[in-house]
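[DERIVE C-ALPHA CELLS]
===
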Amino acid sequence: MPIKNTILHGALAASLGLVPGAVLAQTAPGPAGNPARATANRPATAPAGYVLGSNDEIQITVFGQEGLSVKTRIKDDGTVNLAFVGPIQAAGKTTLQLGQDIARAYASGGYLASPSVNVDVTDFISSRVTVLGFVPNPGNYALNRDYTIASLVAEAGGVKENGANFVILTPGDKSPPVRISLADLQGDASRRVNPGDQIFVPQVETVYVYGQVNKPGSFPLRPDMTYRQAMAEAGGPTLAASKKIEVRRKGQKVDNVSLDDLVQPDDVLVVKERIF
C-alpha cells in the first residue's frame, strides 16, 4: 500500500523546525487498517460516548507527525489550540468526533494528506462525581469508565462497618435527592452515575431495644426488619417478658403496634415485664 505524503511550504516547515521542502509522511496503516500505536504509557481510555468538557486533559496523536502530536487541556471556552489550524471546538464532542474534526482540519488546510488522528483523555476533570460519608476513601472520582452507584461505592472502598446499606444520591442535574438501597443490585443500585452527582453514605440507622430482653442496647436497622426480629437481635425476651411491647418514635408513643410491623429508624422498643 503506498504511503501518502504532503509537502509543507517553507514557512510552515521552518516553524516545525524542518528544512524547506521537508516531507510530513502519513504512516502506513497497521493490521486490519488500524494505525500503528505505541503501547507504552498509553493514556486512559474514555468510556464509549464520553463527552469532553472544559479542563479535561487530552492527548492528541497525529500518527507519523510527532511535531503535531500534543497533550493539552481543553480551555474554558471549550476549545483546544493546535499548530497551523488554530482553535478547534472540543467540548461537547466525543474523543472520536474530535479526532475526526482535527483530521479534517489538517487535510482541508493542505497540511497533511489523509491524516490519522487519535484522541485520548489523560485527566478527567469535567466529569467527576463526589462520594462522601461512611466510606474508607471519600472524595472526588473521575468518570473514566461507566460507573453504577454500587460500583462507585465499591471504588471508594465499600461501606464502613458503621455505614448504612443505602445511599442518598443528589443528582448533578439538580433533580431532587433520592434514597437508593445498595442491596438492590438489579435495580436502582445499578443506576449509572452522571457528571456532578453526589453520593452520600450515611451512618447506619439504628433501633433501640430495652426492657425484658437478654441483650438490651442499640442495633443496626436491617432492610424490612420487624419488631420481632429486633427483639431477636437483642437476644430474645427474658423469662419475665410479657407479650406487650411499647414503641416510641421521636419521643411519641406509637399505638397499636404488632410484633410483625416494620421498624422505623431510631425507634425505641421497650419489652414490658410480665405481671404474674
